[in-house]
Amino acid sequence: MAERLLVIGGDAGGMAAASQARRQQPYMEIVALERGRWTSYSACGIPYLVAGDVGSHEELIARTPEEFRDRQRIDVRMGHEAIGIDLASRKVEVRDHTRDRTLQLGFDLLHIATGAHPIRPPLPGIDSPYVHGVQTLDDGIHLLEHAERGGCETAVVVGGGYIGVEMAEAFLRRGMKVTLVEADEQVMRTMDPDMAAPIATALRQLGIDVRLGVKAEGFEDGVVHTSAGSIRADIVVLGLGVAPNAGLAADAGLKTGVRGAIRVNRRQQASVDGVYAAGDCAESYHRVTQRQVHVALGTVANKQGRVAGLNLGGGYATFPGVIGTAITKVCDFEVARTGVNQEEADRAGFEYETVKIDSTTRAGYFPGTQPITIKMLAERDTRRVLGAQIVGREGAAKRIDVLATAITAEMTVDDVIDLDLAYAPPFSGVWDAVHIAARKGAEALDRAVASRLR
Amino acid sequence: MAERLLVIGGDAGGMAAASQARRQQPYMEIVALERGRWTSYSACGIPYLVAGDVGSHEELIARTPEEFRDRQRIDVRMGHEAIGIDLASRKVEVRDHTRDRTLQLGFDLLHIATGAHPIRPPLPGIDSPYVHGVQTLDDGIHLLEHAERGGCETAVVVGGGYIGVEMAEAFLRRGMKVTLVEADEQVMRTMDPDMAAPIATALRQLGIDVRLGVKAEGFEDGVVHTSAGSIRADIVVLGLGVAPNAGLAADAGLKTGVRGAIRVNRRQQASVDGVYAAGDCAESYHRVTQRQVHVALGTVANKQGRVAGLNLGGGYATFPGVIGTAITKVCDFEVARTGVNQEEADRAGFEYETVKIDSTTRAGYFPGTQPITIKMLAERDTRRVLGAQIVGREGAAKRIDVLATAITAEMTVDDVIDLDLAYAPPFSGVWDAVHIAARKGAEALDRAVASRLR
Fold first, then answer.
1. CB within 8 Å: A419 and B405
2. Which of A431, B29, B287, B354 is the most exposed place for a label (fewest CB within 10 A)?
3. Is the ipTM of this complex over 0.95?
């Protein structure tokens, strides 16, 4: 096999594939194109770079182009942007920004990992240089420069999702006055409203001015205009979600799906032979709703990239999909979710019961024990756990992984009650909070059956 | 149903059953006998009581006899010891220590939860009052009194299991000079030797004098004689494991099994109709080895008690068994295990591969990230995860729950790689340490196949 694998995109979805393909095929030619200046960096680390937790943007880089070249013989070409794909002649047209020229590169195998871009609604002034997206490492570097510049005292974050609350904390910890503007009536729309309410409370207690039901309407230098008046802003960040960079693939004739993301099968194969895609530009399969979804997360990009790389290298691997797990923290307030929330469960047509419990992260009497609230959704009849949401303090949120594993295994609430989870007073109560939620879930399902029989 | 349920034993295995039965049957008569002074307390909290983390022994009591009486109408009789069971006439002979009299109590349903007792090898001086077991709340109170007494400066802990290392830390934090004597060549025999070695190192770094391969041979006031000389000891604690209190049940003709524990089926029914058992006095089923085992842990006692109570109350419930999960910490050094270790896997006849990985509890660049080492055992051919062990610092050990859940679901290493675990830089790397262990496990299994085909 003396083929050429061409990879478009030098971050997780692309380089995880390139690395894995190399491990399978020592002699394959692997060329990777990256239009920017960086490979394989942690975009999720940007809020912590801006906050000052991370000393330099270089710490966010997992592997440099030189490392890919020297250790894995991957020919990474920086400043090279794919601008057209010809699937019939199996060639990519490439703009080499470093030498200001255009070239053509043939491929036997193509892997597309073009990522996503922050959504920028067409509002007046949105393209001004002080309105930042948070997506690339360059975004992070610009934000940091801007935040460190003298006179940067007020920040407005537009959108109260994960990036929004993380950036709000980052600015707060830089000593800035922070306003978070969210068009919806709650922050964190991936959480149910009753679980999002304590998050907004926690943000406000930290000193963040959270304005719900307020729409950003335009940006001027130093001011954000909203549906409820103007707010001073030396810096603005957009946290309105991202959209896949799938135009290049679509223009080439590859099928796209949810939100325009590239359609892939379980092996990460796109709709044409020998063409794969992974990461923020591609669709995922949701194992609970059994529907295609678009998830832009580093974990998913790495997993999909690995699977694509195994297949590109002549192996056989499938990616069984996601279940919508996510986590964040704001100062010491932790938030996590997995599976479906109520809105998603309703949309997917599930019949379910919900329960919510308050417990502690350690034995109630143990020093440093912290509050944890778990909400659980369980399907009627099958008694399967469909979803869970956690809010709490230190040590609370990572418990979501137990529920993510249980949901993946299609466990019932009764199965979860029986789980042999680790107990010692510094780590949990004798019934872990996860157990307690499952017990309440079982009781709610029992009551639902009883009331139907009555 | 106007029956009488008689419960022998007022701690977790007994009172969880009594409470659950009450919830099912509002009118059933429930009498519970407790020979000691306390109900439903956290024996696992005793080391933290002695260390001074917990202000008073009362904080370890989950529910008092009065609360059981007033809230649940459970007739708890303190200072009452069952001294004989007549299964034919369905009566229990009871010694009432409070009034120094013996009485007979009939029952329709009987639940035995007599617990366990610390193993005391027949060594000279072992019954002296300064050689303590760590089992009952009274043990904890005596230990605390002893430790707080003036002149208590040296402690010897015999046995390096969970209780042993927890008590060693407790004495250390009281400012005592602590020696831990372990007859085996490693501490924590539920861990493989290579995972136990760093625990011994951590104990020594804390200042505990760990003596491996040393046997206690006798006790005199102020001195412990060992196979390697004498050690000064103002206080001695035994951490040599526990044996079930099953003599009463065995004498009555109930079947016993592993280590003499009461044999029960999946509904916690003993070998005679209408008689149940739960907790430290009863056997458990190990879901990985598919063998009966004896596990004396509060979590298991609570789960078994709940299942017994559901059945005693006329419901239907089964306890599917344990997988040997356990956790502890010594200062900030955390230890956990689940499933089988190598010795257990060998004894059960599994063919398996082992891998060991070093990772971090948070993103490598994130402040406060701590080391975590995971060892994983995976079965050849089926690729199932059979067991896992974790050592590390803060935030490491509770990750064992993900692996416990995966093992329960009979997941393969490949299933674990695909788990949608929660990622954000303050909580894990983009590949969680659990993922990394599973990836190494998959590679090891692949290599094993390749080497067999060669």
1. yes
2. B29
3. yes
